[in-house]
Amino acid sequence: MSFSTWHNYGYGLQTDNINIKSVESLEELIGRAPKYQAHIKEYFMEREIARPTIEDYLELDEDFNNGLASIMYEIIKETEGVELTACDDFECCHYLLYQPLYPWQMKSEDSQMTEERLDEIFERYFSIITDDAISLDYLSPENGG
Predict the structure, then answer these.
(1) Is pLDDT at 144 greater than 80 in this prediction?
(2) pTM, entire model
(3) Contact between 94 and 69 (Cβ < 8 Å)
């Protein structure tokens, strides 16, 4: 059996230190993505969760457990057509990143992407759920398995 490590290089932020204002702000954010919102309602109905908490929302991603990063990934993908990466590192810190792409992997949204446009997208969606300033940077979380 072997063990390998990898880095997810990209522009974005760590999402664990984001202070979510309230369940209502999270629900407002999710309301921007109707398909994802319908999926979440079905998910909670199946689990008989009538009044979800912030923790319930952060546990939606049962496959990778990336919490808020996974929620933001889904919302931004549906609303902006931009595919980000939700990932974690060795210490279970979660990240939301825009990763570099080869030209043949790019959609039209990617070919027109700029750092300023990404800043605007991140700010637009994170400002719904937090009053904290977000700090975007070039990151390379390392993980392995």
Answers:
(1) yes
(2) 0.95
(3) yes
